[in-house]
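Quarterly update, task 2.4: S-adenosylmethionine-bound model.
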Amino acid sequence: MTKKTRHKKIMSIQKEISRKNLEKKINNTYDVIIESTSFNNKYYIGRTYMDVPDEDGVVFIKKEKEIPIGTFAKCKIIDVKDYDLVRRNSMKVQEILSNGIKTLNEYKREDASLEARILLADILGISKDDLIIYYDREITDDDIKRFEDGIEKISKGYPVQYLTHKKDFMKMEFFVDEDVLVPRSDTEILVEEMISLIKEQNKKDILELCTGSGIIAISLAKYLENVNIIATDISHKALEIAKKNANALLESNNINFIQSDMFENINNKFDIIVSNPPYIKSEVIKDYNLKYEPKLALDGGKDGLKFYNIIINEGYNYLKNGGIIAIEIGYDQREEVIDIAKKTGKYKCIKCKKDLFGNDRIIILHT
Ligand SMILES: C[S@@+](CC[C@H](N)C(=O)[O-])C[C@H]1O[C@@H](n2cnc3c(N)ncnc32)[C@H](O)[C@@H]1O
């Protein structure tokens, strides 16, 4: 054995002893120097008494009361780290973030940076805009693991919003999980258009078909006064989420949520029928990286037009005089959807509006 190899071996044994000694401290109370607070501000990070070299490590203490940084305190230790390891990690919360972004870039995620930030900020319990302030803070092993596991899932196409269970829409934070489509920001265009149209024309009775997480109905209820809203979905699980969101986001939840296969359980007439139905052609769903979202929320049948046919052909019977239908469409469905509407001969005025990227996005039909 060379002198160098022997030295390396001794160092590694030394490190092992040191780690074991450190682990013995977990759940025990020691004198600790408080050095900083963790990212999420839930823990103090400190050092055990340093005159014992084999026990030189970094410890985590639950932040139950205020302890000034730099002072000694008797604390119950809840986690420990080998000092070298901590130095490697702590230096690099920023590095952890950039490693995450790098991985997502390698998997060609379009919003790599945003997704990594959303995930890390959620794990740390801070806003993603505040992340930069915390770059030099320590982070627990648990949090690092949660972040790395999350990045692995996102790299395979799993929506980050299913990990955080949050999606911002119309300045509200909606709960989402695998039972509902992750709301797309494009749908804000439909909602904004509806808000101004309903205000302008003083409309009152609104039906939303295919509500999913409830974003459209809840946004209309939030930003409009004196409206009656019924929101439907075929999925019981989706309706449970929509109700949960309505209860959390509206001062008084007066949306009537009904389980219904399109118009099946609807008996009233409305001023407005609004919907973002499933509209992807069955056979191309697999080409998009959408395998984690419910097929029920995506599948628009063979030609992608199944639900537009139902809404436009049957919807007329559920509209009051002067009633309006407003639907979100795929960027390449304008002509086909307008054709369906023209064939009915029931709609006087047909308008198409574009999204912020210049794609056709909404069709509005006036009776
Ligand atoms: C594209 S998602 C829209 C969800 C939500 N409105 C949004 O914009 O994010 C379509 C929704 O239609 C629902 N759906 C599918 N088939 C349906 C049917 N036959 N009747 C009613 N709702 C249906 C799905 O469960 C899903 O929640």
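Highlight for this quarter: The pocket of S-adenosylmethionine is lined by residues 180-181, 183, 187, 210-213, 215-216, 232-235, 238, 261-262, 276-278, 296-297 (CB under 6 Å).
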